[in-house]
User: Fold this.
Amino acid sequence: MKLRLVPALLILFVMAVTIRLGFWQLDRAHQKEAIEARISRYESAPPQIVTKAPIAAQAIEYHRVRAYGRFVPQRVVYLDNRPYRDQPGFYVVMPLQLADGGYILVNRGWLPRNADVRTAIAPYSTPAGDLWIEGIARGNASRAFELGEGGSAAHQPIRQNLDTAAYAAETGLPLQPFVIQQTNDTGDRLVRDWPAPTTGVERNYGYMLQWWGMAAAALAFGLYAARRAAKKAT
Assistant:
């Protein structure tokens, strides 16, 4: 069977790219499975105490944590477009001044949005004085899609997203580089029915099969085209 050089090279290129992309998705799936195993292991581990001593976000993410301090309500940020059971609302994110002088951001919970006035904040309470906050360490306070800067401009109480490092520079607070997703009840009327952290590993396996399916289709097409060309040549 005689193959033409240029079409054969093109088919081999397509196969090489799609096979490589399939292996990339397989590697991503394995990484996410490792994260899921970490989350499961940390669920039964004792909580770590957070102080002002710096902790890398990668070293503590998904761990159970506890922190003792008092909230700084004048620095609150409301993260918009955070629905709960199909109802629009905000996440209430507030710094906690730790007893030893450091600070950490706390995602305190969900608050419904006023249906008539978008920027109106429903009433909730903030405990006064020092208290224990328990929760899960997360790399950020949750991310939502936004175009450009969107609603994340500095010094605005209502934002789309909140970058911890940028917020630390904005406020001058010596923040830990991670956020506590609060789980204990402090009588503040906020909802803390957090969605389970999912990594979407099934999607990566699905994309892997799609890429490898494209590689198989390219091979089948090349063999079919070569066969037709051979028949015409005879």
